[in-house]
Amino acid sequence: MSAGQTTAGAPPAAEDELLAHFEALVASGETVEPRDWMPDGYRRMLLRQIAQHAHSEIIGMQPEGAWLTRAPSLHRKSVLIAKVQDEAGHGLYLYSAAETLGADRADLLDALHRGQQRFAATFNHPALTWADTGAIAWLTDGAAVINQAPLCRTSYGPYARAMRRVCQEEAFHVRQGYDLMRALCEGTPEQRRMAQDAVDRWWLPAVALMFGPPDTEAGGADARTAALGAAVSRRAIAWGIKHHTNDELRQRFVDQCVPQAERLGLTLPDPAIRWNEERGHYDFTPVDWETYRDALGDDTHWARQRVAHRRAAHEDGAWVREAAAAYAAREDAGVPPAGTGAAGIAADRTEAAA
Amino acid sequence: MTTTSDTAPAARAVRAGARTGAARADASRTGADLAVLLLRLGDDALVLGQRLCQWITRAPTIEEDLALSNIALDLVGHARTLLTLSGRLDGTGRTEDDLAFTRQDREFTNALLTELPNGDFAATVARQLAYTHYASLYYEALAGCADPDLAGFGARAAKEVAFHRRHADDWTLRLGLGTPESTRRMRAGLERVWPYTAELFDEDDVVRRLAAAGTVPSPAPLRPLWERRVGEVVARAGLTVPAPRWQARGGRVGLHTEEFGPLVAELQSVHRQFPGGTW
């Protein structure tokens, strides 16, 4: 809170000095900490990104969470429970990082529930089979790691520290997802078909949606989207929030996945994928952002479903949170717990009423 | 969790009793009895873990999503060890997955308490309160067994369950003393699950033979202590322990509630859709 309030009261000359100091700080590679002055635009951009990331962790629990009760072996069940648990933990780290910027977790959740803040649109796809849990872990989490690894060095200290913990666990999830897919690929023809089908459905969402809109010319045909994306990325890079363009990271992801898919014997659903000796990268079909306008919209079946599921959990749990708050207030007030006999209980009730 | 040595209790029992035919018969019966008992405990953990999985993404707070998944993970871990041991002892060589995913509903021997549908958060807390205090006492008792596999499991699991018990105790207090609505719901939760608690402590021939042989203690003598401990928590929460007029039984012999069929169907669905699959 403090830094934002300082800005409002600071005279223009002082603000110029503060800005120069801030930019020097970022340029030096030192982290910006909650007490440091920061431009409002920086705060807004960070808050938006961290909140979206936190929401994505929480919403991302749903497609995999739906398979917890159906995991086909107890080993896989344990692995999946641990993964979904990690995602809840990541959500908590990230909401805490957002709170250092003056946001309140309850408000952020409300914004998610009211559809005012977004989450990764990748999760607006359904997880239709068991293999989807593997494809999500291998591809979606794989994309997340590539996206997030540079964020361990992002300019805002609390975010960078949260991301270091997140990335360690995410890398583990990717290996587990690959291992799940490997087991399916080495299994029966039906298991193999299930694995290929899941990759057919999760590849493009990972390539397109996990990295955001094209932000260089290489990114695709939509020049206006790319130009806007490029402007946003330039700003984020200048502030040290990001270090790479969306398209650079997307290329890194494709380069990583193609050999992995070959080892698994799975086909990535893009006929344009081939090694380009000259570039030293795999070519692939540029992301047609228009295709994803629908998936990105707030009003698709799955977007509604994901938010409705969250909202239902939140609303059903309201009485529990109220009880916990009332109990905590009571503890703070030093009301002793109820006695073990009737007299104790009666005394306790009286105090509670008073 | 499946860190059991190759020298399974039955094998040792068989070796110990190999001198005479009668001793051999006793030893093999002890092994079979132990397989039955461990399957019951494993099914308790598996089925309760499955119920808790149904909470994940639906909990009242993100912290609770985390806590309930943590507990579910421990329970699945306990189930894996117990089912693995049971499969080694019963002579069929079944693995943890064979037992979890290929048995019929009627072959599951969990106590009915563990399969009760989640209900609201208070009903889940009440079920956790009853189970965790029981499991905590019984696993501590297992930790004293002569058999190193059982004793090792009991000691490890008792430590984990102590955290689950703390979680249940804390929520019982919060809900019991929180708001009028939470008090009402917590009371209803206790009323809902209490008729299913006696079965946890039941003795039958299997339990009695194992206790008489000094292999595994019976849970029956633990009941008074369980009642005292649970009673203390419930009283501190400003509530009273229900005195149900009936007690449900049947889980230990495979007679389950109607809600159990869908639970097993869901548990086994993917495994059964891919015959011969490897995971």
SSE blueprint and pairings:
The complex is a heterodimer of chains A (354) and B (279).
Chain A: H1 2-9, H2 12-27, H3 40-65, H4 74-99, H5 105-113, H6 130-148, H7 157-185, H8 189-209, H9 223-238, H10 246-264, E1 274-276, E2 281-283, H11 293-296, H12 301-316, H13 318-332, H14 342-353
Antiparallel strand pairs in A: 1-2
Helix pairs in contact in A: 3-4, 4-7, 6-7, 6-8, 6-10
Chain B: H1 9-16, H2 21-53, H3 62-89, H4 96-102, H5 112-115, H6 121-142, H7 148-177, H8 180-193, H9 205-212, H10 223-236, H11 260-273
Main features:
heterodimer, A: mainly alpha, Ferritin, globular, B: 279 residues, mainly alpha, 11 helices
CATH superfamily of chain B: Ferritin, core subunit, four-helix bundle
Number of helices of chain B: 11
Estimated share of beta-strand residues of chain B: under 5%
Tell me which CATH architecture of chain A applies here.
Answer: Up-down Bundle
Note down, in words, how this protein is organized.
Chain A: GO terms for molecular function: phenylacetyl-CoA 1,2-epoxidase activity. Chain A: This is Phenylacetate-CoA oxygenase subunit PaaA. Chain A: InterPro entries: Aromatic_CoA_ox/epox (IPR052703), Ferritin-like (IPR012347), Ferritin-like_SF (IPR009078), PaaA (IPR011881), PaaA_PaaC (IPR007814). The complex is a heterodimer of chains A (354) and B (279). Chain A is mostly helical and 354 residues long. Chain A has a single domain, classed as Ferritin (Up-down Bundle), CATH 1.20.1260. Chain B is built from 11 helices and no strands. Chain B has a single domain, classed as Up-down Bundle (Ferritin). Chain B is globular, with a radius of gyration of 19 Å. Chains A and B meet through helix 3, helix 4, helix 8, helix 12 and helix 13 of A and helix 2, helix 3, helix 4, helix 7 and helix 8 of B.
